[in-house]
């Protein structure tokens, strides 16, 4: 009877070769191959049947490759309705890109490969993937993080990382070596300092002819003892990672047990029993059966293991495999040949201790694939219902909270914000030259006015004659131009550009402005400004321009003279006002403020006031007094105050004198400025035969002209160069932020954003799973 069944199966294969197209031939060949009873060949080794079977399998594989190549080139145009399995496969691919917070991916089927360290997990996975793709080591831990391998059929045997476009040709040894090296680098990179393993998943896609479609996750091997060089929590971390994957109710657990060691030493079987006590989603694999048969005195133990009688762990199926002789240089084909030769000659099969469907990695791969897709079929409808219910809840929440807003996810919101920011940057180029120069002129004078008055004008004005005044001014202006002025000017220009940029971004907020972009815009502004650096070459040219402007003393007409006097008066009035405020704070409220506001002077203010009165009498007697108070004058003032019962420190006297003399000098300078209004005629004659000297007016004209020329130069640099460079920086920052998922998630936040993200994912999932 057994021979009759075999011949009938071969007859089906023969008919398929002559009657059907390439697709039908593949289907019937596979059907015939699965109908063959391997035990009949093993018990009745008829070589002609075996050769015929091998020939048909090879032809089946070649036909599949040809068809896949035609599909890839677009030659084959059959319209085939997508099956539930194909659609669910798309869902798996899309979900891998979604936010893990959505909590959907954790309940989708995965084949989780677990086992003790060096039990052969990786080797089994490589046999299923038909390529030696993982790094290898002698007893040391090589799998340091989970590796998710998505297997699918394709015309070429290639591998590719999810986040990379490079394809590794698995038929070339140099590409295989590069792939193993890249996996090892990614594993080590994912492990944090001070740790041995990492929970971060490395995603890899493998395609090739005849590969069974499924998704497997290779986990770090379970260890019983932490050895030297490992982190102290390595054992617990591996247990935690393994449990996290196995607790998924739809995960298929591929439990790998080393057959060459005592079964009692296994740790992983107890762990799997805890996670799947009924064994409804566990497949047990015994590796290194060749060594087990050779070393065991009683082969019956192998039979007990694969029948599920030695372990308390339960499983859907039990398999025995051989994954090579232990050499790292073995090819997949040589391992397959060795495995088939071993089982054909093994007494484990000859004596009936193992069944034919329980051996070889090929049968294991078919069984795992069938189990995986069965789990997918069973779970897809439940997942689809869950997606629809979730979508309804999310849509209801959106309608109630954001009835007038579109459902824009984070990427769509980023694009909208990007366009707004670019519009705001473009607005900078529309600022008028007059506006730029007015702002620059004002800010530049605010920045340098203190230095001009305190370090240039006042020291020069206190000299005895005009020659000394002009000499002092020229020396100090030259030093200022060489060392400080260009730097200050560029600082002002850069600050002005930043403030205008910020102003445009703030003013853009109108009725339709979405405040959800505020954090992103602020980050873009800060990062763009941080990256922007002013052209350093402009400083040298600016220094020359400023130096030439200050060298010029030729006031050509009366309006320029009047403008200089007005500029000088405004400056002196502002300084006088500041000085009066300082003196008032020193001496406290006067009698009017004390009576009307009920304010009193402090003891120190009282001493200051008495000192001020005494020093004012001294100034009245000597209106042309120098800026410094002599020591004998300090002593005289102190004794006069002591005579009135006021104890005063000499330092306080000098400090008070400084402010009083400053006010006295500014008042005299303003009077002199008023006299110089009619001095343009004398200026043209170089003040010959005139007691009036207006060198201070000329100084302020030089300063004013330098400010105007500097503001004009900076405005040209802004409009011609720096605004465009800032715009370029903003675009680069936006591009960088757009590629950084974590950055976008940090900058565009809130319940509205998360709700839109969930809605977008929900719509996609419902579309694919429906």
Automatic annotation (TrEMBL):
Pfam assignment, any one: OPA1_C
InterPro entries: Dynamin (IPR022812), Dynamin_GTPase (IPR001401), Dynamin_N (IPR045063), G_DYNAMIN_dom (IPR030381), OPA1_C (IPR045817), P-loop_NTPase (IPR027417)
Domain Dynamin-type G span(s) in chain numbering: 105-381
Enzyme Commission identifier(s): 3.6.5.5
Entry's Gene Ontology cellular component terms: microtubule; mitochondrial inner membrane; mitochondrial intermembrane space
GO molecular function: GTP binding; GTPase activity; lipid binding; microtubule binding
SUPFAM superfamilies: P-loop containing nucleoside triphosphate hydrolases
Entries under PROSITE patterns matching the protein: G_DYNAMIN_2
Protein's UniProt name: Dynamin-like GTPase OPA1, mitochondrial
Organism from which the protein derives: Esox lucius
Higher taxonomy: Eukaryota, Metazoa, Chordata, Craniata, Vertebrata
């Amino acid at each position: 009877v057994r021979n009759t069944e075999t011949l009938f199966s071969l007859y089906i294969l023969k008919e398929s070769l002559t009657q059907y197209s390439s697709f039908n031939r593949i289907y019937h060949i596979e059907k015939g191959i699965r109908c063959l009873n391997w035990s009949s060949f093993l018990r009745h080794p008829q070589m002609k049947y075996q050769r015929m079977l091998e020939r048909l399998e090879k032809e089946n594989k070649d036909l599949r490759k040809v068809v896949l190549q035609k599909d890839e080139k677009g030659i084959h145009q059959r319209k085939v309705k997508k099956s539930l399995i194909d659609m669910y496969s798309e869902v798996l691919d899309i979900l891998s890109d979604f936010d893990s917070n959505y909590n959907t991916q954790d309940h989708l089927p995965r084949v989780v490969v677990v086992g003790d360290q060096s039990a052969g997990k990786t080797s089994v996975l490589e046999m299923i993937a038909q390529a030696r793709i993982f790094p290898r080591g002698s007893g040391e831990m090589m799998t340091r993080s989970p590796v998710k391998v998505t297997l699918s059929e394709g015309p070429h045997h290639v591998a590719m990382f999810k986040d990379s476009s490079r394809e590794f040709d698995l038929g070339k040894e140099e590409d295989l070596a590069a792939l193993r090296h890249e996996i090892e680098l990614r594993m080590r990179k994912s492990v944090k300092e001070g740790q041995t393993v990492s929970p971060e998943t490395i995603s890899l896609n493998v395609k090739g002819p005849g590969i069974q479609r499924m998704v497997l996750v290779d986990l770090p091997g379970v260890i019983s003892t932490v050895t030297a060089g490992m982190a102290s929590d390595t054992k617990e971390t591996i247990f935690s990672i393994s449990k996290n994957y196995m607790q998924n109710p739809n995960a298929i657990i591929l439990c790998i047990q080393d057959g060459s060691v005592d079964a009692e030493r296994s740790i992983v079987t107890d762990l799997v029993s805890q996670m799947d006590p009924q064994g409804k989603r566990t497949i047990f694999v015994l590796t290194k059966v060749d060594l087990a048969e050779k070393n065991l005195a009683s082969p019956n133990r192998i039979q007990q293991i694969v029948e599920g009688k030695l372990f308390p762990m339960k499983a859907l199926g039990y398999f025995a495999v051989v994954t090579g002789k232990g050499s790292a240089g073995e090819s997949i084909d040589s391992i397959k040949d060795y495995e088939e030769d071993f089982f054909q000659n093994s007494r484990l099969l000859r004596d009936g201790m193992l069944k034919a469907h329980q051996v070889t990695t090929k049968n294991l791969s078919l069984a795992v694939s069938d189990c995986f897709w069965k789990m997918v079929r069973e779970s897809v409808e439940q997942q689809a219902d869950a997606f629809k219910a979730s979508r309804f809840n999310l849509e209801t929440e959106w309608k109630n909270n954001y009835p007038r807003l579109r459902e824009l996810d984070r990427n769509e919101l980023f694009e909208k914000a990007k366009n707004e920011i670019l519009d705001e940057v473009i607005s900078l180029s529309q600022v008028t030259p007059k506006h730029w120069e007015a702002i620059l002129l004002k800010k530049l004078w605010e920045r340098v006015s203190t230095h001009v008055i305190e370090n240039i004008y006042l020291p020069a004005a206190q000299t005895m004659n005009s020659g000394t005044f002009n000499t002092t001014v020229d020396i100090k202006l030259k030093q200022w131009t060489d060392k400080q002025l260009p730097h200050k000017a560029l600082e002002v220009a850069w600050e002005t550009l930043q403030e205008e940029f910020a102003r445009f971004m703030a003013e853009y907020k109108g009725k339709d402005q979405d405040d959800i972009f505020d954090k992103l815009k602020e980050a873009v502004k800060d990062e763009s400004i941080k990256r922007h650096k002013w052209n350093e070459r402009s400083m040298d040219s600016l220094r020359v321009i400023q130096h030439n402007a200050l060298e010029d003393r030729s006031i050509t007409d009366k309006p320029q003279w009047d403008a200089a006097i007005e500029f000088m008066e405004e400056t002196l009035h502002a300084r006088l006002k500041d000085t009066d405020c300082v003196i008032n704070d020193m001496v406290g409220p006067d009698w009017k403020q004390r009576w009307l506001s009920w304010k009193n002077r402090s003891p120190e203010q009282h001493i200051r006031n008495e000192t001020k009165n005494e020093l004012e009498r001294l100034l009245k007697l000597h209106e042309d007094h120098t800026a410094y108070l002599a020591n004998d004058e300090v002593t005289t003032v102190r004794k006069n105050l002591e005579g009135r019962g006021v104890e005063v420190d000499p330092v306080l006297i000098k400090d008070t004198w400084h402010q009083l003399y400053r006010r006295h000098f500014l008042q005299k300078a303003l009077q002199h400025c008023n006299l110089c209004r009619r001095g343009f005629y004398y200026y043209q004659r170089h003040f010959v035969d005139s007691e009036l000297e207006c060198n201070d007016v000329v100084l302020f004209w030089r300063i004013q002209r330098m400010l105007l020329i500097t503001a004009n130069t900076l405005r040209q640099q802004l409009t011609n160069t720096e605004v465009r460079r800032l715009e370029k920086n903003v675009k680069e920052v936006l591009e960088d932020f757009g590629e950084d998922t974590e950055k976008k998630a940090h900058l565009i936040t809130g319940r509205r954003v998360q709700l839109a993200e969930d809605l977008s994912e929900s719509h996609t999932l419902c579309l694919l799973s429906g």
